[in-house]
Amino acid sequence: MSVTSAGADARHSSWGTGVGRLFAGTALLTAVALLPWLSGNDPALTVLRARSADQDPTPAQMATVREQLGLDEGPFSHLVGWLGGLPRGDAGTSWVSGEPVLPQVTTAFAVSVTLMLGALLVTVAVAALVCTRTLYLGARRRLRRARAGTAAAVLAALPKFLLASLLATVCGVWLGWFPSSGWQGPASMVLPALALGVPSGAMIGGLLDQSLPAAFNEPWARTWHAHGFAPNHVARHALRRALAGVLPQLLPTVVALVGGAVAVEKIFNIPGLGRLALDAAIAQDLPPLQTATLALILLGVAAGLLIQALRRALLGPALRDRALPTLHAPTLARGRSTRWAAGACAIALIALIIAGLLRDPLHVDTAARLLPPSAAHPLGTDSLGRDLLARLGHGALRTVGVALAVTAVCTLTGLLLGMAAQVGAGLTEVVSTMPAVLAGLLTTAVTGPSVWGAALAVCLVGWTPYAAQSAALLEQERASGHMLASISFGAGPGYLLRHHLLPAVLPAVLRNALLRLPTTVLVLASLGFLGLGEQPPTAEWGRLLSENQPYAELAPWTVLGPAFALVLLSVLAVSGTASGRSLLRRAADR
User: Fold this and answer.
1) Which helix or strand (DSSP H or E) is residue 333 part of?
2) For residues 369 and 377, what is the distance between their CA atoms, to the nearest angstrom?
3) Closest to 446 measured CA to CA, from 454, 436, 435
4) What pairs with residue 324 in β-bridges?
5) So what's the pLDDT on residue 417?
6) Which residues form the ABC transmembrane type-1 domain (predicted)?
């Protein structure tokens, strides 16, 4: 391929990506502008109640508010007026407080970005620790056994709000090492950064750890080792090669650390952008919600451009010249400990579910509130005296079933949009900026609160990690030499898809989906906790965590049972990727 044609393809790709950004940004801002009218509630009533919770508004007061806010003019008039004021630095005034919006959003954005940078440092540190063993052994040609990634799966399955509560209680209140509330200086950033960064770092590190063996299996690595290159030099270049495929996962991670950290911000009382957007959405305070959404969109686009530039710098001219070697994972032996761990997790989960199904999950006994584990109640009781083992067992099928369905839809959608890289990249950058809570508010405004409304909300935003990963891996595969060789021999699109593109993408995307399965459960739970998803008294694992989180310090057993079940589910899911990869290899060889 000539340099001229490559440049033309790059310009066409940039144009398509720009169209995707513009379309997705416009659609998102329009949907946000319609929120008060989609909800079915009178925006004037909602605003009045947000101003004074005890106020019982009269029709005259309602009419006055409608006139003040111009609600009779409709949503599009408000959107146009708000957009027209942005070039002048005017983002409007809050419908609730009457104060200018831009200073509020600017302050909250600065707080969230500072917290994001701290959480990113923790993410990188944890990811480095997860990959240390593979880097050390691979650089010395001593990598003989594949890792199951159990440790990474356990850390990635930790609920961030539960970890935040634990850190605030132990390190903030009991030991007094760091502030447990407020935003007063660098020390206030430590605990929330740990709560956000540890699970994210485990997820990124687990994906990178699975990509490194293929980088060490490349011919250059074997040649460098034979010529006596320093192991650190080999490890650095292998990390650079594997990091290019994992780096796009930082896009949804970065944005989630800013707009999706609502629970952690509430626990530590941090005045961040996610908390501001959620409060504005609940109060239907449109100007700050629109401005916060625009700030998140701009952040997502900027992060996407930066990550794309870093990827191209890591891959070098080989990507442009279609001379990039393909990463082929070596066949490594798997220890018996992996199979034993998977079997133990499966047995423990089945035992918990069967034992729970034999009990009544709805029986309320106020005299048995918050009882510790005993023979009568093996996992203890909750704040209403209900048996936690019963609720855990009865909620298992619903929890896992909905989470698997949502994960499957998100994975398939992300894979399809990742293949449409020109427009999909712009869509991914913008949609990844939308917190699931905001998507839940938009969907339930139309569908009403239900588990399937919450599932739809997660599907609307949950495909972005898989789209970013698929697009990056497909770009590298299309730039490989053997791909061009197949095309030169007359291979058609179907052959290329079956024998080159899908085998290069599906194993990594499948592992990513399984690593994120517990996260999907927790996102669905957060929507249910806000009244947007699964409604009480239905037993569901994420709802158990959300309902009992206020009692974590007084009665820690109320959250340990569901958290342990999530960890078991995560380890079991990750250990199953080995058989999935082997099946994909067999299908590709046919």
Assistant:
1) strand 333-334
2) 11
3) 454
4) 480
5) 86
6) 392-578
CATH superfamily of 353-589: MetI-like (1.10.3720.10)
Q: How many CA atoms are closer than 13 Å to the CA of 54, on its beta-carbon side?
A: 0
**pTM attached to this predicted model:** 0.82
Contact 502, 456 (CB under 8 A): no
Q: DSSP H helical segments within 316-395, as ranges?
A: 317-320, 336-357, 388-394
Looking at residue 128, what is its pLDDT?
A: 92
Mean pLDDT over 522-546 rounds to: 73
Cis previous bond, 537, omega within 30:
yes
- Joined tokens for residue 98: 């009457």
CB atoms within 10 A of CB 56: 8
Distance between CA atoms of 517 and 534, rounded to whole angstroms? 18
Asked if residue 424 lies in contact with residue 18, where contact means CB atoms within 8 angstroms, the answer is no
Fold of 107-315: MetI-like fold (1.10.3720)
* pLDDT value of residue 41: 67
Highest mean pLDDT among 184-188, 377-381, 486-490: 377-381
CB-CB contact of 432 with 255 (8 Å): yes
Write out the residue limits of the CATH 1.10.3720.10 domain(s) in the chain: 107-315, 353-589
pLDDT at 409 over 90: yes
423 vs 139: which has the higher pLDDT: 139
8 Å CB contact between 584 and 503: yes
Tokens of 74: 């409709």
